[in-house]
Amino acid sequence: MERVPMTQAGFEKLEAELKHLKSVERPAIIEAISEARAHGDLSENAEYHAAKEKQSFNEGRIQELEGVISVAQIIDVKSLSGDTVKFGATVVVADCDTDEEHTYQIVGQYESDADSGKIAITAPIARALIGKAVNDTVEVTTPKGKKSYEIVNVAYK
Fold first, then answer.
1. C-alpha Rg value of the chain to the nearest Å
2. Do 50 and 90 reside in the same domain of the chain?
3. pTM for this one?
4. What is the pLDDT averaged over residues 4-20?
5. Are both 116 and 68 inside the same structural domain?
6. Of 53, 75, 97, which closes a domain?
7. Residue 99, pLDDT score
8. What is the per-residue pLDDT across 80-121, written as a single tens digit (0 to 9) for each?
9. Which of 7, 11, 136 is nearest to 80 (CA)?
10. Residues 8 and 41 reside in one and the same domain
């Protein structure tokens, strides 16, 4: 199986989620199923079916996380340096049309969170930025059309 690049922080977040699902969610779901069973006829018991559905989702997520964690390739971003954009870089870009600046960190696909500025290495803007340096301009196709960005700063922190 192919290795999945990930930052240390992203790896720790996935491990914490896995631990929570196994030690908190799983026992709570088992308790809910037991409680629903006690109500009698399972064929028309909405609580039972909801708890079983939640259990199925939880177990699926546990399997997904265990799979990802087993093939994770942890990359220590702080040990990286250079002027070009690569995995783990925190990049400041300026929109060429509006001069509005955005800061993105390029991370693994399982730790991306656009709201906090973490974009997956597979995202179109990240793919456009990889290998580029400060003052380079990149063009990205977005749902709103093509956008051009100039790289203002590249840092590894």
1. 21
2. no
3. 0.81
4. 95
5. no
6. 75
7. 87
8. 888 899 999 999 999 988 989 999 999 999 999 989 999 999
9. 7
10. yes
